[in-house]
Amino acid sequence: MEMIREMLSYSFITRAFVVGILVSLCASLLGVSLVLKRYSMIGDGLSHVSFGALSVALAMGFSPLPVSLPVVVIAAILLLRLSETGKLKSDAAIALIASSSLAIGITVTSLTSGLTADIDSYMFGSILAMSQEDVVLSVVLSIIVLGLYLICYNKIFAVTFDESFSRATGVNVSFYNLLIAVLTAVTIVLGMRMMGALLISSLIIFPALTSMRVLKSFRGVVICSAVLSVAAFIVGMMVSYEYSTPVGASVVLTNLLFFLCAALIGGVRNRK
Q1: What percentage of the chain's residues is helix, strand, coil (to nearest 5)?
Q2: Largest CA-CA distance found in the chain, in angstroms, rounded
Q3: Minimal CA–CA distance to 51: which of 148, 118, 113?
Q4: pLDDT tens across 89-98, in order?
Q5: Could you give the CA distance from residue 19 to residue 129 in angstroms, rounded to a whole number?
Q6: Is the Cα dihedral 249, 28, 35, 65 positive or negative?
């Protein structure tokens, strides 16, 4: 507790804690549905799209967050449509859009400013990169994402497990799939400032996979995933502060440790 009190005495760390906890909650809740629907790599794909968009925004002198947000949302909708029409498998569609966006970002960066501190912070994450305006926008959007998820929880649950049955009972499956994709896109953009484009997808995948090793019910997995995600972020921040390691990498390694512990517990339980 003494370390946390000391960390919170710095305003930039306080901002990182607020946004990081909210983004971790959003990513973990959405991650359960994405993993169960075998669409977990959408986070990785959308992070590459976001990197391409922000590279163009920085090159043109615009604020990256307002520019990259609509671009990533459009990319999420496009990915969903490509998968639903059957013209491309979901993994192929993600790889196609992700590699193209990353190539655009790298090309624009090389032709303009090069690998500056701003670009580097978006690739690998940096808590120092968050301005007061970024924090306000991130908090507002995170609350909207969490609110929509909780309001639509029952429908998201139904669509996650059985789309055919949900459609037969009158649920607008296309709308709720679109909602999940859009909420994921928003979460990815918000989390890139701290986690970086290369690591943000871990916030979606790890907590869900860890929770599924020890729990079976959807509600239990969702709650456990949220708790583990927030805990991993806080521990990762503390490790980063104490040993001067990158925040994103520290959070990912903490999530990895949680996953290994859960896998061990699940293995022992299955032997009984």
Answers
A1: 85, 0, 15
A2: 61
A3: 118
A4: 767 777 888 8
A5: 12
A6: negative
